[in-house]
Design a protein that fits this description.
mainly beta, two-stranded antiparallel sheet, globular
């Protein structure tokens, strides 16, 4: 269940950083998600608790200006994180995502 899932990339044409990165970790308190998105550059990462029933995950993001918020439900696999925002604020109206399991953009 743990890992880094990302579609974050640098766009050479526009000079912008685009995408989302989700880092799922586990602690003695359960599972947590670090969520980061972009809007004219990288926004500050947000850390929230997650509900996990392998391979499914749910988390709720607080309202973040120019970013996503609300309830996310997804499924984790060896290939990545497939899921959707079921409620809340969207960016570009996009609800559904597939984020590949891979190294962080920042590494």
């Amino acid at each position: 269940m743990t890992g880094i899932f990302s579609n974050m990339r640098y766009n050479k044409e526009s000079g912008d950083l685009n995408g989302i990165e989700v880092f799922i970790t586990r602690s003695i308190d359960g599972y947590h998600v670090q969520f980061q998105s972009t809007a004219n550059g990288a926004l500050a990462p947000v850390l929230v608790s997650a509900e996990v029933d392998p391979p499914y995950i749910e988390f709720v993001l607080p309202r973040i200006p120019h970013s996503y918020s609300g309830k996310f439900k997804g499924k984790v696999s060896a290939q990545g994180l497939q899921g959707r925002f079921e409620s809340g604020q969207l960016v570009d109206g996009k609800k559904d995502f597939f984020l590949k399991r891979k190294a962080s953009y920042w590494q």
